[in-house]
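Mods, move this if it's the wrong board.
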Amino acid sequence: MGISFSTWRAGGYANAAVPRPADPATLQQLGGQTMGTTWSLRFDNPRMRPLAEVRDAVDAALSRVIAQMSHWEPDSDIGRFNRAPAGSRHALPAEFAEVMRCASRWHAASGGAIDPTVGALVACWGFGPEARQDGVPDGDALAEARAHVGWQRLAFDADQGSLTQPGGFTLDLSGIAKGFAVDHGVDALRALGLTDLLFEIGGELRGIGRRPDGQPWRVLVEGEADAARRIALADLAVATSGDRWHTRTDAGRSWSHTIDPRTGEPAAHALASVTVLHAECMQADALATVLTVLGPDEGFSFAERHGIAALFLSHGDASPPVVRTTPAWPPATAA
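Not the wrong board. Structure tokens:
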């Protein structure tokens, strides 16, 4: 049996990686905390590298991502950019620039459904480290926030990895940085010579290589009629975006943390979650955000056009919720 994850509902995973008597001694696991959530690693360790060495590699990789891209850390690179004076030009660290290039690509392709400058709107709607209130913002507050959103005003130079602070703009990479952290952690583990592993941060996963028995790493996701379905992560990553975890309620209105940069409003549609498969977790994370903003119809069409493997879970009047998968989504096997 492979590592198992409990069936998710409305997007998400719960790690249930419990060693089994049949597992060889080389199949090992580690875990810890990072970015306000947890990370877990299941890996084949044929050379029996010390677990402390493996843990140090993961911790160092995740610390680099936090130091560069955590908007919760005032002294991070993104924190310093957000406080920088208007007109200042900033050369980004290589990892930060890579994330911005990914965001730039999907911003252009989606017509602005993902925008790293959305931070002011996120705060306006009561989320993030600069959250201003818990209730529905008034028109003046929304107008002020929207005045500080707009990717084009960063004058991002993808080749040089540099951008300009227009003045009062707040970058927020929460819709993509966690996926990048998964990839960055995998790269660090590969540098140790580990080639068969499943690495997860807060429900975003990437599997490379195989289990010791030659089988791919597998996860369980929810299928039609609440049936569990196995998906193989054979050199694949999976990421989910949805309305389950961070929500606000005020004056009879509920909204999630996913903000549509095009309108300045939280995404409002029947979509509960989107799960995306991609070779890179950064891309899967970014695309899950894009498709969540676009919604069940526009998002599904976008995913079909771009050959994206995606599973859409929508709220419905009937139970269970409606599940749709794009043609690129792999066939599932029964749990």
